[in-house]
């Protein structure tokens, strides 16, 4: 066992959209229901996961799989899961273009009470023009303008969490003697997945952590180290980075690859084309790193992220441990095809392998009687 131990948080990215995270007619056709997501979250809590996160999505991509045509709203979902659970963190997502910060400030205060301090907030500054434009809520801002709005948004929210009366007149919001009570016992963990330098700098300045993706192993490492480098430049030694990983396990490496091949045999090209079209309509596409990842997936006709970790639990643990250590990650967020059986595999067998590779998790300690 490695003596060079690294401790990470372990989270699950909930399947609040039908079909989960694989765009295929042959992958598990997961239901976008509260009951299913509650079952997943309770399992994650039982396994010792640290948090469950839900996305915000307003429009699906159609196709034969009707990918994400049904989605749960994030904050109300997490309010229910906060009541249903007792230990695991419950993190919800907000698009800053859609919700006024004063409205969310009060919602977060209530979620803080329901969860007894376990709620976290994921901020999204952009998305795509079609998703929010269908409601007339997309703002025609360039890439830097979206983060400018998001920074004003979170500044207002934080003031409402700590000040009795707030007067604010900015470019995007105006508050006159605004009162917001109750207040959370403390500001929640705030995360963002902005991946450009502008996104990283916004996140480092205003949030407690960043969600990271990579196109392959080396890209994950490069991105993780870049985020830590930018944080160090402004003295943020407490800043956390969370890698987001699609994981497809199998009893053997071959069986895991056979699962991926089967899902790719049913790839929903129509849904991917719709996804590509929507993200390609962004005038600031050149700076929108996340949009380019979605477009690349569509162009390559992949049913899932090309950076997916595929293999036996031992293989996945080795691959994951390498990225965690070399990218200096503070957390791992998991996407799987089947959020019951596969999550058990990750939460037990892969967690065991991570421990043997020198990566410590609450889940391992929880399962081995080192936590109550």
Automatic annotation (TrEMBL):
GO molecular function, one term: alkanesulfonate monooxygenase activity
InterPro entries to which the protein is assigned, alphabetical: Luciferase-like_dom, Luciferase-like_sf, SsuD_RutA_monooxygenase
Coiled coil regions, renumbered to chain: none
Keyword Coiled coil recorded: no
Source domain of life: Bacteria
Residues in Luciferase-like domain copies: 9-324
UniProt keyword terms in alphabetical order: Flavoprotein, FMN, Monooxygenase, Oxidoreductase
SUPFAM superfamilies: Bacterial luciferase-like
Name of the molecule in the record: Luciferase
Source taxonomy: Bacteria, Pseudomonadati, Pseudomonadota, Alphaproteobacteria, Hyphomicrobiales
